[in-house]
Predict the structure of Putative ABC transport system permease protein.
Amino acid sequence: MKILLNLVQKDFKKNRVITAVLAIFLILAFLLMAGGLRTTVTIISSISGLNQLAAPPQYLQMHKGAYDQEAFENFVKNHNYIKDSLVVKMLNIKNENIIYKGETLEKYLMDNGFIVQNEGFDFLLNMNNEIATVQKGEIGVPVYYVEELGIQVGDVITLKKGDYQKKLIVSTFIRDAQMNAALTSSKRFLVNDTDIEELSLYMGEWEYCFEFLLEEGASGSTLERDYMEAGMPSNGVGISGSLVTMLNAISHGLIAVIVIAISILLIMIAFLCLSYIIRATMAEESYTIGELKAIGFSGKEIEKLYQLKYIILVLVAALVGYIGAIPFSDIFSSSVIMYYGDGTVEWIQWVFSLVGVTLLSIFVILGCRRIIRKSSKRTVMELIRGEEKRKKEGHYSLPLTGLKHPNFTIALGELQCKWMEYTLIFMVYAFSSFLILLPLNITNTIKNPSFMTYMGVGESDIRIDIQYSEELEEQKVAVGSYLDKDAQVDKYAIYRYGHVQIKNREGEWERIRVENGDQSIFPLKYLKGSSPADSRKIALSYLSALELGKEVGDSIKVICQGEELLFTVSGIYQDITYGGKTAKAAIDFDKNNVEVYIVYLDVQEGVNIQEKANELRNRFNDIKITPVREFVSQTLGGITNNMILVERAAIVISLLLILLITTLILKLVIAREHSAIAIKKAIGFSNKDIRIQLGMRILMIQMAAILIGTIMANFSGEAIFGWMLSSMGASKIKILVEPVSTYLVYPAIQLIIVLLAVIVSTKGVKNYHIRNQIIE
């Protein structure tokens, strides 16, 4: 064994560059695999841990206005599947009345409620995941605003309306198992019971959350149906616990999916590199292997010699990658930990990543063993003659008319006859280009206002929310009258929202949110079919259609305002709001059954959207008014921030891959072609000519690979992104490309990286001369 280790040590010294590059490839593969697994487990553990400690409700119904406390208590008593219940009293305060560092929160679309700490369940936790408490004059701030505004303990939040003003000192940050995610449009602040009673005298509107815990095996949809049939208070949105968990997971889970996907691709590339190097090494050393066999070394002993090198390399890379995954995953998990905490089973992060690294090590080692065994099975004479090597050599003919562009002609000829040697580098270049552009395109798509079409509505400039108010109709009429007279408004449409009951696959009735309005003003692209054209047609969101098992043309039973009706499905569209389960129909809701009016409008060309939004806010200060660009960015803010982080990591990794593979391949090519290089010099080619020829080969491959990688990112990227968002309600995404970055900036950066690698790596051609070949 000592002799084998000495031989391996000498081999490492002899091939420092190749060994180092291969080690970096393997380390990156192990690091990403372990890091992706750690990130995934952290997300699962953190969300699970927060839910376990905070005990969020399994179903909640929000309500504005008065309610009958005795009727609610009787409902709970009469349904034995209800384990526990809670009525949370929440004071909703307008964003314009909340001030931090001299600025209101008007530009934020979140609905902000102020509550005291709950008893029994649905606790608000501090940053140690303990039940948070605040004293008189203090306030607990949701972690969402801590991240968005940079709020620190000791800062002052001012609540002001008219002449009344109250300053509250930030004493803690709040993790809210219900409303943590940016995808959740409401946030809760924690205050003292004395302060909230004082505040309610001067500002805000009371809203009630009727919350439930269920016995094991009980269904949230059953509770929802019974609740509505009993006529319980429901002037607000109803939310299931599973929907809240899904929103929390989606906000941070996409990053883990992408990291693991990148790691799998990188593992494939690393294994291909390893395979290529082993075959190249065995081919180059075939004479030496033949001599070893000739003097009595068995095939197993020779295999052991070569395997030991790669076993050591893999084990060292696995150890470094496993350790390196700790800070790597911490970077990607920082947002998760901030929002949800460390979780309750931290040890599982270490175990899962260790299992992943161990399995990957076994896979790579067994792969190396198979390749080495196959290469060492040749006879002594085949090895000494180098017959396999000669069989793989190709030939090309020079033009009879002479060489007008000698370096290009020779580079192209050598590439034609040795193209198989460059398959690996082509794949790495294409993969790297794909890896750079996919996160870039996804981020650009999410940030674009047209992404609103995946929220179930057509593209517009401004969104106006009129919701859950006793003056709902009056506010809707006032907004419509004002917009009719506003010359700066190009067009607008008012959509009303209510709930109906739809019979599902199991034959049970479940509630679904339905939109009614003129679909032609802000048209929406449908996956299948079209918008409902008459009062007996209904369009379903992608997830609703999937769960109900309905296609265009199918019939569906609907209970609307106490009447059972039969509708025909006219179309299926994409919608990532409300858990992706919505519908559109020309249902003439009674005004008492309308929960929300949402107005979408476009301004005339040249009108500043932000200024128009501010103008409307000043005119209708009781209504939420948001530019659509802000609406999309805030709703998907967590996903966008995570994608930007992935985008940056992908760019760094890809450029590093390009640099490493170029250096590796050039070193191997120069070593294998030393005879050809010496002959070229003998017939008059300079060192510069030979370096140019090598560079041309690589650059031609890279330009073709960039083209393929770009096409893959633009087309297969849509399928990948659609798969990622399919659980949210969007299955077919149109990728929006930023042309300057996609087609100019990043391809140019890749070419520059390769050019620099070529310049540095080809310096070694000066060491090869014809006299050395004659001596050999």
In short: Residues 407-453+633-776 form one domain. Residues 241-284 form the longest helix (44 residues). The chain has four domains: 1-54+242-392, 86-213, 407-453+633-776, 470-621. The mean pLDDT is 82.
